[in-house]
Amino acid sequence: MAQSTTSTTAGTPARIATFKDKNRQEAITGFSFIAPAFIILFGFLIIPMFVAGFFSLTNWNGITPISRGLVTEDNPNGAFEFVGLENYNTILFNEGRRQESFYTALKNTVYYALGVVPVQTVFALVLAFIVNQKWLKGKGFFRTAFYFPSITSSVVISLIFMWMFSASGLVNTAISFFNPAYDPVTWLDNPTGTLHMLMNGIGINPTRDMLRACDPATLQLWGCEIASIRLWDWLSGPSVTMATIMVLNIWTTIGTMMVIYLAALQGIPSQVYEAATVDGASRMQLFRYITVPLLQPTTFFVVTIGLIGALQVFDQVYVMTSGGPANTTLTVAYLVYRSAFDDSRMGLAAATAIVLFVIIFIFTLIQRRVTREASGAGS
Amino acid sequence: MSATTLEQPVQNTSTTGKLIRRILGIAGILFLAIVAAVEIVPFVFTIVNSAKCLPAINAAPWAFVPSSGFIDCRNEEGRPLPASAMTSGVTFQPSLEGYQMVIAEDLPRWFMNSVIFAAAITICRILIDSLAGYSLARLKFPGNRLIFFIILGTLMIPGVVLIVPRFILLKQLGILNTYQGLIIPLAADAFGIFLMKQFFESIPKELEEAAEVDGASRLTTFFRIILPISTPALTALTIFSIQGMWNNFMDALIIVGTSPSLWTLTLGLTSLQGAGGETLIWNLFLAGAVITTVPMAIVFFAFQRYFVEGTSYSGLAGQ
Question: How far apart are CA B236 and CA B59, in angstroms?
């Protein structure tokens, strides 16, 4: 201050110097404030992705210390060899047991996602729409009731469902109460595919021989193997046990999705509805032609996070079924765990994880793009 | 003329419209009530059955009216009582056997471990996330935006994909099966940083400028002025962190799964499956489930607003 008033010639560079100093100081502060967070996220989220990529190219078993290094002629007791893309070929392209496991897991996971995501989205939307009505009393109660399961531990909910759906559990007892002729279903140990049941119901009932046969000329296709899995088995649909886990997931996540929808609904200006009502639109028309289109970005978001969650389903499978019965609840995430820690095939597990990452990443990118386009068009 | 033609149909539809609206309204409430019942009933029956003896759970899971006084599940000779002695109709004789068994199964230790993990990770996140959020919101430095995008980008990495490489990394660092092994990797999270950044950006700059004129350093300003007025965002961060860590299963399984003394509640609960050999001891499970859920339920009912706001906020953040 004193300097700048006494001499204007020296004042200007001095002021620039302090300004620069201040900038530098701010940058240093900025870096040091963000450093802890950045180191942790970089070290435990980004580096691991490269570690996974690296080990997916090896045959490490996860047990031999990595410090023993690469297997060479001089070092026959090394921990791992580079196998190139062999792990990827094993799960994706080479016929055999591993390929069968991977595609079984993928098939189960896709059926799971296809069942869970649409149902939870539609339920969440309808619930949010009703809860958002002005005339509804006890909004808080309903919101709490719907939301509570989603804050509860997945392990706890899995245990509760295991009990409820056990042979003598609440669900079977309740059904028997209303229908004395009911033959109790063993929900958690039933590998029958729900689509198979449906097909049997409409008379598609292939015999053992038909399931073994693969002769395109005579149109006997049920036994034809695609990626080590018979066509008939591809079309199994989720097993009864998997369907039970799907119900669990829908039951748990509806509340979260509903709250997201509710926030979006409350963001729609009431003038839009008033204008449409003046034009003579009915309630159903309001819902169909105003609410649903305006909620499109939210729907896309809900569908994507639902999908990303469904593709990763793990806890419930671990607790309730360990992938059984007959591998019908084996999911890709659980397969990663099983390969890594039960089969001691860390390299294979890493490759499976990378494939899962790519699948989820593609869905995330699609979501980002579509949402950006939608919001870009909206504004 | 035009006014009457406009009003005519509106009035016409309003009589039949009212009826339809009322029917739709009743159907809507009915639907809400059914879904609400489906969401709540499992919890109610979990609590009720956690206080029964095993034979009573298997024979009469629906019985929900406790008769007075707790009973022992075994007679003087140590034999289990038959279900008929413990239930009749909708009433049952309550017992604390499940709770006694689960506490004997080392549950207090799991509970303490869960508390330690949740508390340590939450404290770390409050500090680290808010410092990072402040840096991104207010401080100019080269690469500011790039770092922000990298941090946001980590939200796209699915947790399941990390189980193998995290295991490898922590094993190499020698902190597998330690407290710090589970705490450090989770000590910061992208969502928390994003939450804090958004909040700090909403604070008027004049507050800090006034402090700066008084000669306070950035660190002092941050701790003395910014953090004290950030309680809403910090509360949301705290609650989300506690909930996430209390319910965390996969990270704990991979990192401390082979070390029973470090097990959390969720890990401990899954270990109970082997407790009864082939038969599943439901009262043990259900008592464990209740004890695990009660602390979260208390947090939830005390801070419900933050849960709901935070979830809708994540919906906006994701877009």
Answer: 44
Nearest to A128 by CA among A255, A41, A1: A255
Q: What is the pTM of this model?
A: 0.90
Polymer length in residues for chain A:
379
Q: Looking at the 3D structure of chain B, how many domains does it have?
A: 2
Which residue range forms the structural domain that includes residue B20?
1-50
**Identity of the amino acid at B268:** G
Residues B144 and B270 in one domain: yes
Q: Are residues B43 and B178 in the same domain?
A: no
On whether both B28 and B125 belong to a single domain, the answer is no
Angle, helix B2-50 to helix B282-302, in steps of 10 degrees: 140
Q: What is the ipTM of this complex?
A: 0.90
Structure confidence at residue B2 (pLDDT): 42
Q: Hey, is the C-beta of B30 within 8 angstroms of any chain A C-beta?
A: no
Q: At residue A378, does pLDDT exceed 50?
A: no
**Minimum CA–CA partner of B183 in chain A:** A40
Neighbours of A177 (CB within 10 A): 10
Q: How far apart are CA A151 and CA B306, in angstroms?
A: 12
In terms of pLDDT, which residue wins out, A5 or B249? B249
Interface contact A263-B312, CB threshold 8 A: yes
- Verify whether the Cβ–Cβ distance B39 to A149 is below 8 Å: yes
Give residues with Cβ within 8 angstroms of A74, minimum separation 6: none
Residues in chain B: 319
Residue A244 scores a pLDDT above 50:
yes
Q: What is the C-alpha separation between B6 and B12, in angstroms, rounded? A: 11
Q: What is the pLDDT of residues A50-108, one digit of tens each?
A: 999 999 999 999 888 888 888 888 888 888 999 999 999 999 999 999 999 999 999 99
